[in-house]
């Protein structure tokens, strides 16, 4: 660290600036029956760690020195770098393990400021994957920072504005074929708009003559709103004979002073189109009813990214969050008499060229009739989610048959515009009521230029494997997880690549039809035979469970995942003294802070010599898991032949690993119920 930076840190001490974060950490530890010490970080669930990281980043941003310290990249200062990291944490596109050294430093007693800021810079430097554009790091579930974490709603809104700017990244405006792409399939639209505009030119007092009649000269908001509602009604009447028979009744919305229901904070909408044709002027609307949001400005100069465009993006985020069957949203901005049509989806925002509605009246008619007439699918609704008889369902083809899956309730919906847009529903199969979970998300394609809509249907749900109620249950679930990994690879050609204690699940509920053990989270998975690199760059996986070869930079193999199963079992035996009895082991602190090469050496030191391994296991396995010492050693010997790393791939390792786990379950000492 250079002298200028050191002096800035010395002149601006943190002092009590992170005390509120430390109190949050103490509260979480208390709730989890853990001591409030750095080592407890290793026993916290991934969701707790994510929340802690977001809280810490928020507090670091608030420190005055964050605005004085230089950026680690091209930003104005360090605070901007920290702000950009939050969306990556939220979207799970940043490995939490990389920021654990910073967490350790902050919650430890008497850590000097230079150490904390060094860890901040290190976390920012190691941010992966490196963004190609701002939109590479995108807010996702489990949620952005809540209003409760801010002193007032204004501060929360400012935070959300910054996140939205980073999320949307570069907006593409002035696309020449925009209308053809989004309005071209509306039946009769081109012919009808020409005919309707011709009618607007007729009569002694035509609706349009060198501009729209009654258009307010100063484009003042209330005047424009009144004009907008009136002119749309007249255009609808003039277009009635051309209207497609399947058109749904929609109406304009103009309630800029009334908050729309369904927002986290009070959020209003200038203008737009709504799905409720019976709503009156004073009716309260919900974001789930908004079809087309719009933003108004009196001045044409407001047609910029920092004004009308960003405000429209806020409204679009509310619409996408409230409507779990929405894939994209069309909207518009009207700045003075300059109109621009927008489309927002999981990649960001694109827009048409702007046009003056008082000079190109026919284009205005075309846009308005398009919004009123286009199908729900053209407005961005997912046609695969079908509503009928008060139920919603999707249909899938499986084994040559069509199955109907009923959506019971929404579990979660990502609050974002650009990003994976993760949505999860609890569902059941109509045929037999089998409970299911359906997950929708938009994954990047290989080129990073598009996102691919993916839907996963799973019937399995359970709890993390380390919560197993007995040693036999743990071994049985681990055996099932290994079998599942082999099946995923042999039948689908998929390599998981993130074997960890939070991604191995156990089911001990006799009424739950799920497997007794199964894998979750294919976020880092790849097709094994696929050429080229995957979307996740560099070493992937959860750090402490990574195979030695992966830490050393080898291309990921199924053998590495099998090794990770060993490290999961090894870790549980040391850190859990039975169900719900996690403990802290200081010896392993370094596993979270060491570099990749150093961690590889640490792991080699544990498995290289049988006598040393058995001695270490007897000294460090908890009393509860002492009966597993000889069995874990047997696993070690097949995963690390002759005390070293494997030299060639061997698919038979799957069955040998599972056999040891099955034999261990028959061991009387293992199966004996502990007091």
UniProtKB/TrEMBL annotation:
Top enzyme class: transferase
Enzyme Commission no: 2.7.11.1
SUPFAM superfamilies linked: Protein kinase-like (PK-like)
Superkingdom of origin: Eukaryota
Domain Fungal-type protein kinase: 269-447, 449-573
Stored InterPro entries: Kinase-like_dom_sf, Pkinase_fungal, Tyr_kinase_AS
Catalytic activity: L-threonyl-[protein] + ATP = O-phospho-L-threonyl-[protein] + ADP + H(+); L-seryl-[protein] + ATP = O-phospho-L-seryl-[protein] + ADP + H(+)
PANTHER family given in the database record: FUNK1 11, FUNK1 6
Protein name (record): non-specific serine/threonine protein kinase
Organism: Clonostachys byssicola
